[in-house]
Amino acid sequence: MRASLIQIGVDPGEPVEKRRTRAAALVREQAGADLVVLPELWTVGAFAYDAFASGAEPLDGPTASAMAAAARDAGVWLHAGSLVERAAEGLYNTSLVFSPAGELVRSYRKIHRFGFDRGEAVLMGAGDEIATAELPDATLGLATCYDLRFPELFRLLVDAGAQLLVIPAGWPARRREHWTLLARARAVENQAYVLACGTAGTHADVEQAGHSIVVDPWGEVLAEAGAGEQVLTVELDVAKVARTREEFPALRDRLLGLPAPRR
Ligand SMILES: O=C(O)CCC(=O)C(=O)O
């Protein structure tokens, strides 16, 4: 299975419409891949809090339409990263997965919102559903950026059958070491592929880490991008997930009924 991660640059000098067209063209260039992945909030920028409301879109808005068309034209499964979803109940950081027919097959509202008492944490609602997407050759587990810090979410995704953990992000350069460390940790502890796709550039004065990374179920880094705009293409052997789990059955040894702490 071939996967391409598009680490697109998000800079305030580029109008969103132009970036949308550019992202769609980059997706079309990946024809021949099985799965293409874009990062978190690549339209407005993950830290451009002031633009969240004005840049919010419904799930049949211009970004979703452009991504559906690009997936269809390229004939790929497309994890289109996330956008600011405008729903009746408010705003959400929502990821979208399209089939090669251009059909929206899954959406995922980010569960752990970043910012503590500001930014996304106060401007957006929290998702409350675990999301997987069934591809012909693999089950994707969906998570977004800050979710990467919460291993319990990934355990639930594994229990739901995830083999490829796909994590679009807008991770800051200042915490780049955490990004690569946590991506490898999630791969090793869940014996799954991790496909973590970040953004390049600087927006809202926050330099982005880039360094999109693909890690195999043994924790080996198959590919890692630099800081700039880049497409990372990797071959994945999905059967390696089952092989790793059989040969080193650590997941089997989980203590599901852990005793309550003694007080
Ligand atoms: O956890 C981090 O350090 C970064 C998270 C983040 O930037 C986000 O979720 O948008």
Number of strands: 14
Task: Identify the overall geometry.
Answer: globular
- Largest pleated sheet: 6 strands, mixed
Number of domains: 1
User: Per CATH, which architecture?
Assistant: 4-Layer Sandwich
Enter the CATH topology name.
Answer: Nitrilase/N-carbamoyl-D-aminoacid amidohydrolase
Measured on Cα atoms, how large is the radius of gyration? Answer: 17 Å
| CATH superfamily membership | Carbon-nitrogen hydrolase
Distance between the termini: 50 Å
Strand order of the main beta sheet, please? 5-4-3-2-1-14
Mean of pLDDT: 97
What is the CATH C-level name?
Alpha Beta
Explain this structure to me?
The chain is of the alpha/beta class. The protein has one domain: Carbon-nitrogen hydrolase (Nitrilase/N-carbamoyl-D-aminoacid amidohydrolase, 4-Layer Sandwich). It is built from six helices and 14 strands. The chain has helices at about 15-30, 60-75, 120-125, 150-160, 175-190, 240-245, and strands at about 1-5, 35, 75-85, 90-100, 105-110, 130-135, 140, 165-170, 195, 200-205, 205, 215, 220-225, 230-235. Strand 8, helix 5 and strand 9 form a beta-alpha-beta unit. Helix 1 (about 15-30) runs parallel beside helix 2 (about 60-75). Bound molecules: 2-oxoglutaric acid. 2-oxoglutaric acid (AKG) binds next to loops. Keywords: Hydrolase. GO terms for molecular function: hydrolase activity.
